[in-house]
Amino acid sequence: KITAEITAIGGFVPETVLDNKALEQMVDTSDEWIISRTGIQERRILSDKSLATSDMAVFAIQNLLETSGLNADEIECLVLATSTPDHVLAPAASMVVNKAGLKNAWGFDLNSACSGFLYALSIGSSLVESGRHKKVLVVGVDQMSAIVNYKDRNTCILFGDGAGAVLLEPAQGDTGIKDHYFKTDGNGVNYLSVPAGGSLYPASQETLDQKKHYVFQDGRTVFKAAIKEMSNSCLEIMQRNNLASDDVQWLVPHQANLRIISAVSHALDFPIEKVKINIQRYGNTTAATIPLCLWDFKDDFKPGDNVLLTAFGAGFTWGCTYLRW
Ligand code: ACO
Predict the structure, then answer these.
(1) For residue 158, how far is its CA from the centre of ligand 1 (angstroms)?
(2) Where is the active site (predicted)?
């Protein structure tokens, strides 16, 4: 049986920093409130208006190719997780294939919000496990600054822009992606969405006037559901793979709120030292948080380490992936 493993990682965050002090000038908030409620100190924003989501994905892929010594034409498939494609119609993956010079690859977008990277990793690993492909790129990328209302203090403090990329190849030993657990609940649309711009509420003067093209979130409801479902999906994976807390070396959770991350690590009986956290620097980059964490901390993962990845996002969508490094 073929198993897929992550053999290279790349990342990209824009240079422009939006810190809490700058947000104090934009909305009625404070550095102290943001840090104590979310753990976020600053986030990166793609300020160059000539660039978009596909460009961040390309930069992350170029970083991966440079550090791994691979050529772009060796890539066979690109699975691109994003909720903020350059266009509503025409997949961002198509732009990325061209701009990154992946001339032997086909690619497609996958939209599952903050869980998108894990869902994409599952699809990408299936393509390797089936023997269909040997080199699959999985990218998580979002330009949240394009859909956030910087006059809404409930949401604008949370999000940032960025991209992370991993390469999946057939594993050589007892390493690689071992298991996935995913769930989806459409009732979540009532608590977290960008209401307009799709087929239900196409863009109109009314949707523009009502600011329906920006992220809407009932933070409390999302907060509680995120803790419950990320914890439960990790526990499910641990149970069915006979993993006790001590058997897991690292937890890499979606970075939405430091208090959510702390509550999940507590529920799993993981000391916080085993949990990878970079939310203080990047905020919530939606599909990019987990690959950006893998990129940031890649030197910490040692061969044989058991790693759990977990996410929760709009939809609602959630789940956990278990891999051995
Ligand atoms: N600055 C100051 N005060 C604020 C701010 C702010 N930026 N934002 C909200 N407040 C106020 C509220 O108005 C409220 O005031 P009130 O009591 O007078 O009404 C008070 O602070 C408390 O508001 P809550 O929303 O209850 O605050 P909470 O502690 O829940 O924190 C937060 C809000 C940070 C949004 C939290 O609920 C959260 O992180 N939710 C989950 C986010 C998440 O996981 N999203 C999922 C993924 S995103 C995706 O899929 C795209």
Answers:
(1) 9
(2) 114, 254, 284
Nearest CA-CA partner of 296 in 70, 54, 13: 13
Q: 241 and 147 in one domain?
A: no
Prediction pTM value: 0.96
- Determine the atom of ligand 1 nearest the C-alpha atom of 257: 39
Whole-angstrom distance, CA of residue 123 vs CA of residue 134 = 13
Domain of 49 in residue numbering reads as 4-173
Q: Which of 173, 202, 224 is the last residue of a domain?
A: 173
* pLDDT at residue number 299: 97
Q: Is 261 in the same domain as 206?
A: yes
* Catalytic residue flag (residue 114): yes
> Which ligand 1 atom lies nearest to the CA of residue 226?
44
User: Among this protein's residues, is 241 annotated catalytic?
Assistant: no
* pLDDT for 229: 98
Residue nearest to atom 1 of ligand 1 (CA): 29
Which burial class, exposed, middle or buried, applies to 242 when counting CB atoms under 10 A from its CB (0-12, 13-18, 19+)?
Answer: exposed
Predicted complex ipTM exceeds 0.90: yes
Please give the C-alpha separations between residue 20 and each of 150, 240, 298, in angstroms, as whole numbers: 13, 42, 28
Picking from 122, 150, 173, the residue at the C-terminal end of a domain is: 173
Bridge partners (DSSP) of residue 45 are: 16
